[in-house]
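Hi support team,

I've been running sequence recovery on a batch of backbones for a student project. Most finish fine, but this one hangs at about 90% for roughly twenty minutes before it completes. I'm not sure whether the input is malformed or the queue is just slow. I've pasted the structure tokens below so you can try to reproduce it. Let me know if you need the job ID as well.

Thanks,
M.K.
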């Protein structure tokens, strides 16, 4: 039996207990071009309604993003991203008690969203893409999710190459945690995301999932984003709308190995059911 490591995640002055239960992070793409649901929630009212639905389905965290990071995507301007996400974050801060995460690599977008009620910065560049991002996180006391990505969204899937993908990404996070501590951001504020599908081949993604428990040695919560990803389509020969079972299987495997504390998903209700059944069975096994 593999239990989820217990740890605290410091988010804007409060400690979020990680490990007593796995957290479900619901995805809200306020974009016209995200790979899964681009355009469905581009308008503020639609995004807010979707977010409230995800909370009702059991989302612990809402991850709001205004710039697609799908393979080959083009960056959007600062003004456009601000216009997309700030009204949504502000409204949700008033309408729900869910923890709010802003999915951005722009420091000014992060600052604006933290000002109106966000708690976490989820940065696909590991707080490296914008030289001001680390200071925004430090100054606001925000939680941060560091993701690993080889290249940029525009280039990352052209020819991703690693000698040992698991060891290299572990080393990347070790170095980032050390650098951010020097910059004044304590390890307790940080979660990590190995970046499934971000500058990785299908084989790299499978190797990471199969060995994700090695990242537990870093002592930080692991955010796992496999929902509807392209590697599942290739593995199963399934189109986008038929990847739920594969997404749940990958999440269940990582839960069973004790290597997924935060599940970032499109399908919140189904993932919450998965987590609930797994937790009940784990509790029974522990008491038997």
């Amino acid at each position: 039996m593999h239990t989820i490591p217990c740890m605290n995640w410091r988010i804007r002055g409060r400690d979020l207990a990680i490990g007593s239960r796995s957290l479900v992070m619901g995805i809200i793409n306020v974009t016209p071009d995200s790979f899964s649901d681009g355009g469905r929630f581009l308008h503020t009212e639609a995004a807010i309604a979707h977010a409230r639905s995800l909370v009702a389905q059991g989302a612990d965290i809402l991850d709001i993003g205004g710039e697609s990071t799908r393979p080959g995507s083009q960056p959007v301007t600062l003004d456009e991203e601000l216009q997309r996400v700030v009204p949504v974050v502000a409204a949700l801060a008033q309408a729900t008690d869910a923890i709010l995460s802003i999915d951005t690599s722009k420091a000014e977008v992060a600052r604006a969203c933290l000002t109106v009620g966000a708690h976490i910065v989820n940065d696909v560049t590991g707080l490296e893409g914008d030289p001001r991002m680390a200071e925004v996180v430090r100054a606001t006391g925000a939680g941060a999710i560091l993701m690993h990505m080889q290249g940029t969204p525009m280039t990352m899937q052209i020819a991703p190459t690693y000698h040992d993908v698991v060891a290299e990404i572990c080393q990347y996070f070790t170095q980032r945690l050390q650098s951010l501590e020097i910059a004044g951001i304590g390890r307790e504020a940080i979660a990590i995301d190995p970046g499934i599908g971000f500058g990785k081949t299908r084989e790299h993604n499978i190797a990471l999932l199969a060995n994700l428990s090695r990242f537990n040695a870093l002592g930080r919560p692991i955010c796992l984003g496999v929902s509807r990803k392209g590697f599942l389509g290739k593995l199963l020969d399934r189109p986008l709308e038929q990847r739920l079972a594969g997404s749940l299987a990958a999440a269940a495997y990582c839960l069973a190995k004790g290597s997924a504390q935060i599940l970032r998903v499109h399908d919140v209700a189904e993932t919450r059911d998965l987590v609930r059944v797994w937790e009940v069975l784990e509790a029974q096994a522990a008491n038997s």
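--
Follow-up from support: It reproduced on our side and the slowdown came from queue contention, not your input. Residues 7-287 form a domain with the TIM Barrel fold (CATH 3.20.20.20). No action needed from you.
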